[in-house]
Specification:
The protein has nine helices and twelve strands. It has helices at 15-18, 25-28, 80-86, 104-107, 121-127, 130-138, 209-214, 224-240, 253-259, and strands at residues 2-13, 40-49, 52-56, 70-73, 96-98, 117-120, 149-152, 165-167, 174-178, 187-192, 198-203, 243-247.
Length: 263
């Protein structure tokens, strides 16, 4: 198994997003003037295994528009096809794609793909609710057109500390697990490498390893308690299995993968 980090630009986030206040100010602070943090990467991942290529998320595109709490820096040269080529791969090699969740910086790059994109059924359903459609319109972040989103269920039972899972490879070494919190249907993907380590491609379960250890939900998690419960499950899993934790926006994810540094 070989895992390639793919970086499709950067995003600057408001401090109020990463260090949300409790209570009624939690989401309001996103839309009022405030401090900004340094830009962070927009990672997605290519997994070579059993002579197949799986994508976990698809990154962002240059057409993205800034929103009140996120400023994007994405060029056409940084989009998915070029990121794959830099890793010695081709968009035509991709056999399967799965999204951790349906936010633009994780799904917009799917416009480059020809085949269907797998999304957890709860996440796909949530993206089609009235509230989600209103926010997509207000924030100018629509679901990309022309992409075939196919749903899947987490119906394989528990996997480690996670109560719901779904095998994504025939040998069970690539597994989607439920990590609700950032969005209601968020998943992460665990790849068991050749040494038996669990490489946890975490999407936005947290934005960094620091946030995980702090048990600090971000500002947009619909139910902060659910996000904290997921963080506890990740830490519990790491106590039982050597786990390399790779959030999509952590500047340390690439070096952590290269050094196989576990939680």
């Amino acid at each position: 198994m070989r895992i390639h980090p793919l970086t499709t630009g950067t995003v600057g986030l408001k401090r109020a997003f990463l260090f949300a206040r409790p209570g009624w100010r939690r989401q309001l602070d996103l839309f009022v003037p405030g401090r900004w943090c340094d830009a962070v990467p927009i990672h997605c991942w290519a997994v070579e295994h059993d002579r197949r290529l799986l994508l976990v998320d698809t990154g962002e595109t240059a057409e993205v528009r800034d929103i009140p709490f996120a400023r994007f820096d994405v060029t056409s040269e940084a989009e998915l096809p070029t990121a794959l080529a830099a890793a010695g791969l081709s968009i035509d090699d991709v056999e399967r794609t799965v999204l951790t969740h349906m936010h633009g910086d994780h799904m917009d790059g799917a416009v480059h793909l020809r085949g269907p994109v797998l999304v957890h059924d709860q996440e796909l359903e949530f993206s089609r609710t009235l509230g989600s459609r209103v926010m997509q319109r207000l924030l100018h972040q629509p679901v990309p057109r022309g992409v075939q989103f196919d749903s899947f269920s987490l119906d394989d039972g528990p996997f480690g500390a996670f109560s719901h899972s779904r095998a994504l490879s025939d040998d069970g070494r690539i597994v989607a697990v439920g990590t609700a919190g950032h969005t209601p249907g968020h998943v992460s993907v665990i790849c068991i490498d050749d040494e038996g380590r669990h490489i946890l491609l975490a999407g936005d379960a947290t934005d960094s390893a620091e946030q995980l250890h702090a048990l600090r939900p971000d500002a947009i998690a619909p139910k902060p308690a659910v996000a904290v419960e997921t963080m506890r499950a990740i830490l519990d899993h790491a106590r039982e299995h050597p786990t390399v934790y790779l959030p999509s926006h952590d500047p340390q994810s690439i070096s952590r993968l290269a050094s196989s540094t576990t939680l």
